[in-house]
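Dear all,

This email documents one entry for the complex benchmark we are building for the journal club exercise. For each entry we list the sequence lines for every component of the assembly. Then comes the predicted three-dimensional structure of the complex as a token string, followed by one or two observations. Please use this as the template for your own entries, and keep the labels exactly as they appear.
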Amino acid sequence: GNSVTQMEGPVTLSEEAFLTINCTYTATGYPSLFWYVQYPGEGLQLLLKATKADDKGSNKGFEATYRKETTSFHLEKGSVQVSDSAVYFCALKDTGNQFYFGTGTSLTVIP
Amino acid sequence: DGGITQSPKYLFRKEGQNVTLSCEQNLNHDAMYWYRQDPGQGLRLIYYSQIVNDFQKGDIAEGYSVSREKKESFPLTVTSAQKNPTAFYLCASSMKASYNSPLHFGNGTRLTVT
């Protein structure tokens, strides 16, 4: 069946460090891929998405590339800020409109 | 602004009482979903609905019930049969017709049952 596996946390980085959160998926067909961010006490917000192989999603300095050959969608940011502290979820949507989420990765950025 | 409204933000109930969580969307989305989130954990699907007057069980439907009488509304009832109801509940919606359309989430309801 379809599933998403993402890097376990928590992750702690100093401000301006480089961020990578790994995400791999298992799916039949051609899913769409998403990264969501959740701040404390809030719902999930869409951060970026990619809908086909080799697409790069980007937003607020975050990027992720849809790699079909490695079934991956790793999240990267070149220079993190304290305000990026949150929980990040990788997700896929299959052609049957079903969503599958990873377990989330908590990021803390320290000044 | 279009979006999803969940109310209330915090809800307290005594054990043995049923409680209904509200979810309304004005995005004209066909599909709506309820997820449960426990501390430090990911999302687990309770129920979803792809069209009015139809809904399906998710992975953890036991002890919950839903209705979808209107496109805009998808209330969730947590019944007394739910053994561990204290959690953060998230409602979401998406456009059914577009398979690459993302989920849009409300801000959640935190339910505490004592």
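Observations: Chain B touches chain A at residues 4, 6, 31, 33, 40-43, 45, 50, 90, 92, 94, 96, 99-108, 110 (CB under 8 Å). Chain B is about 0% helix and 50% strand.
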